[in-house]
Amino acid sequence: MAGKPMDVKVKIGIVLIALALAVLPFMLASVGTAWVRITNLAILFCLLSLGLNIVVGFAGLLDLGYIAFYGVGAYCYALLASPHFGLHLPFWIILPIGAGLACLFGVLLGAPTLKLRGDYLAIVTLGFGEIVRVFLNNLSQPVNITNGPQGITLIDPFKVDGFSFSKTETFLGLTFSGPIKYYYLLLLVLLVVIVVNVRLQDSRIGRAWVAIREDETAAQAMGINTRNVKLLAFAMGASFGGIAGGMFSAMQGFISPESFVLVESIMVLAMVVLGGMGNIWGVIAGAVLLSFVPEILRYTVEPLQKAAFGRLVIEPEVIRMLLFGLALVLMMLFRPAGLFPSKTRRREFAAGEQH
Amino acid sequence: MSLLEVKNLKVAYGGIVAVRGIDLDVEAGELVALIGANGAGKTTTLKALAGMLRPSGGSVHYEGASITHEPSHRLVHRGIALVPEGRGVFARLTVEENLAMGAYIRDDRHEVRSDLDRIFTLFPRLKERRTQTAGTLSGGEQQMVAIGRAMMSRPKLLLLDEPSMGLAPLMVQKIFEVIASISAQGVTILLVEQNARLALQAASRGYVMESGAVTLTDAASVLLESEQVRQAYLGE
Asked: What is the pTM of this model?
């Protein structure tokens, strides 16, 4: 990859995509600010999916409690930048702390599960995710740390001196609302995370993860320190989750344990699997798709029913999940390796058809 | 001084003792066979030597230094390579990617490149199938990948676990020819086998294991003639 002169077509493509991404929030804002927020959440889910992809896609360790790291990052930011403790640290201090803390939790989860594989690992990670959520829910007594199910409110937005990410500003005749500012920031973070992921994939560590995913005993025989490399996967995946969590906190201004439930873990996992495990671009596509489709359904199901039957027959929420489930089943039937499978996944399914 | 010196090695799985104190020596350049029936503790011994299992007692010395408690990844750096039982190829990776993974600990790219060519001369069949995924190969070809992959780490001591397992007779013959040629290149080999005849024909010395202990050891030619071995392992 590196060192090769880039094709002119590729260059033009990149410029066009960059331009499209640059004007996107203004076009969305003209439809409604809600759509900018939805896009921001979609980018957050891209971050989460890329983090989980390291654990599940690269290293092949099934993690069903990934959202816990998101929660750790989110609560870390909320507690250090809200009136709850009266702390208002700047975000460039809290985000690294959140990433570090999530990383520590990743190691805490990874260390006892080093010898577990497959189903057993999945069960333990699922339990871990629940433990974190239950703690968030109950750490309001005897000392009120997390404020329990009420969650934490009035969380500070990102601020650099006088420049706040929550205020609306006009610049060059364009209106930059809070969500639009966050959009650009998120896009920047996403870009960094993508670069880190691409570099990791092509690195020695990336190769070690592949070896572990394919056959752990053989990986050991190759001279790979499987313990450290697996812990590293957990730690790196978790810290990406932690960063995403901190940004979520700042963007929403309010968090509660409800945002970090099992279904969210499953959702992120579905994005990774649907998009194509182990393939960075596939995973991003999966995250974008699964973030937007339910929202689009939310806005179309109700008017459609009213037009067809003159009244609401089925609740939008119900039909949304129904269609969503159907879409997943169809996906798995027709593109079992994911939308954009990685090279090795594609081979696996191709090999399956040959036999 | 032997290249590998094992003294009173004990290995247990929880409470179950699989290896009950064995002594074993391998001289540099030798091909030594470790034979025995199913469940005699051969694979356990080999795994302990490769650092994949922790011995519960005894000592292992390699090049004069104790490696009793060294983990497998450090042993690969010291020049000990294991070809695991059941081959353990990376099924979804191509033959070439498998072999490259064998050179994981090395960073001398050019040398790795030339080693790859050497492996391909050793196994012309693998060269033909270099872009094929290892999972689609026959058992014998997979064994070639596993051996070739281990050779890519440039081992001084090669630990082979049941290379003939589940292979067609013709393929077994072929694999043993390769083992002989690797041995001729000066690589020390410890070979675990159920196929006692072939193993003893290839080896210079042999150890016979029975329920976790070494019951017999001698020159391979002597073992081939021994009444005990002939009755128990050669089916005569």
From this structure: 0.86
Integer Cα distance of B45 and B8 in angstroms: 11
**pLDDT tens digits, one per residue of A272-331:** 988 888 889 999 998 998 888 878 877 787 778 788 887 777 776 777 677 778 877 888
**CA pair distance B236, B226, nearest whole angstrom:** 11
Strands B205-210 vs B4-13: parallel, antiparallel or unpaired: unpaired
Query: Do A75 and A260 form a contact (C-beta atoms < 8 A)?
Result: no
Contacts of B81 (CB under 8 A, 6+ apart): A221, B150, B151, B153, B155, B157, B158, B159
- Span B28-54+70-232 CATH architecture: 3-Layer(aba) Sandwich (3.40)
Instruction: Name the minimum distance, in Å, from the CA of A279 to any CA of chain B.
Output: 15
Evaluate whether B128 touches B92 at the Cβ level (below 8 Å). no
**Which among B78, B101, B108, B137 is the top mutation candidate for probing chain A, defined by the most A β-carbons within 10 Å of its own β-carbon?**
B101
Report the distance separating Cα A284 and Cα A194, nearest Å: 9
Q: How do the domains of chain A map onto residue ranges?
A: 8-354
**How many other C-beta atoms can be found within 10 angstroms of the C-beta atom of residue A86?**
6
- Whether residue A221 and residue B84 make contact (CB cut-off 8 A), yes or no, is yes
Check CB contact of B82 with chain A, cutoff 8 Å. yes
Listed residue (A205, A223, A227, A226) closest to B77, CA to CA: A223
Question: What is the 8-class DSSP label of residue A143?
Answer: S
A50 contacts A197 by C-beta, under 8 angstroms? yes
**CATH topology assigned to domain A8-354:** ABC transporter involved in vitamin B12 uptake, BtuC (1.10.3470)
The DSSP symbol for B7 reads E
What is the token pair recorded at A35?
A: 């759509």
ipTM of the complex: 0.88
